[in-house]
From TrEMBL:
PROSITE patterns attached to this UniProt entry: PROKAR_LIPOPROTEIN
Compartments reported by the entry: Cell outer membrane
Annotated Polysaccharide export protein N-terminal domain residues: 40-128
Annotated protein name in UniProt: Polysaccharide biosynthesis/export family protein
Lineage of source species: Bacteria, Pseudomonadati, Bacteroidota, Flavobacteriia, Flavobacteriales
Alphabetized UniProt keyword annotations: Cell outer membrane, Ion transport, Lipoprotein, Membrane, Palmitate, Polysaccharide transport, Porin, Signal, Sugar transport, Transmembrane, Transmembrane beta strand, Transmembrane helix, Transport
Ranges annotated as spanning the membrane: 223-242
Main subcellular location: membrane
UniProt membrane topology term: Multi-pass membrane protein
Length: 243
């Protein structure tokens, strides 16, 4: 038994070395804070497994999930291109095109220039269909929310879930952001009204927001079920015991 516990302890130590930046401490590392600073020039960059629609005005045979059509059913009927493991998509007429790490305007310019071989004045629109932010925990409607724009603030996202639940811990909201193989974490305290410019941070597609509950939530839930079945004396004893 002791040997098993010893090996388990070693495994936990080794695994924690790889995922240490997932742990949240009261004092964030400087690089973690810098990750979440507001960036007015931020633009989403296309990633592997992204779903992309291409619309060319008046050219249905060159479009995939065109937003110019009468029926825009990209997601329903799978009318999109998936970015493969090498960062490529297969564009009609043009062929294999690497899109990894490119912004939407950059890709639009690339395709527009290539289409000029066949079209006089091609009008091209590109859309990433799976730009999403996930919010979990003490909000009224925890969900994965699709966002169209690149600049979304924390409070704006929370408003889309219907707001906070009663037990939301506004002092310890966590935001997780993937950076390559690393996940950065920051802790947000929304009770500091005088620091709203720093706390209402800019979110990026792919971020995960976690709103934890206050410590007394489970306590209150237990009291709600126990007290109606107890006398005042036993209820007082229970309260003392739980506290």
């Amino acid at each position: 038994m002791k040997t098993t516990l010893k090996y388990l302890f070693i495994v936990l130590i080794l695994s924690s070395c790889k995922t240490q930046n997932l742990l949240v401490s009261k004092e964030q590392k400087p690089e973690d804070k810098n990750t979440f600073l507001y960036d007015s020039d931020y633009q989403y960059r296309i990633r592997k497994d992204d779903k992309i629609s291409i619309s060319v005005w008046g050219e249905d045979d060159l479009s995939v999930g065109s937003v110019y059509g009468i029926y825009n059913s990209n997601e329903v009927y799978g009318k999109w291109l998936m970015v493969d493991i090498n960062g490529n998509i297969e564009v009609p007429k043009i062929g294999t095109t690497n899109v990894l790490g490119k912004t939407v305007p950059e890709l639009k310019n690339i395709l527009t220039e290539k289409l000029k071989k066949w079209l006089v004045n091609p009008i091209v629109d590109i859309k990433v269909l799976n730009k999403e932010i996930t919010i979990l925990g003490e909000v009224r409607n925890p969900n994965t929310i699709q966002v169209d724009k690149d600049n979304v603030t924390l409070l704006e996202l929370i408003s889309k879930t219907g707001g906070f639940e009663f037990y939301a811990n506004l002092k310890s909201i966590k935001v997780l952001r993937q950076e390559g193989e690393n996940v950065r974490v920051t802790n947000i305290d929304l009770t500091t009204a005088n620091d709203i410019l720093n706390t209402n941070i800019q979110l990026h597609p792919g971020d995960v927001v976690i709103v934890p509950s206050k410590k007394n939530k489970e306590f209150d839930k237990r009291i709600a079920t126990i007290i109606p079945l107890a006398t005042t004396v036993s209820a007082a004893a229970i309260l003392v015991g739980l506290l």
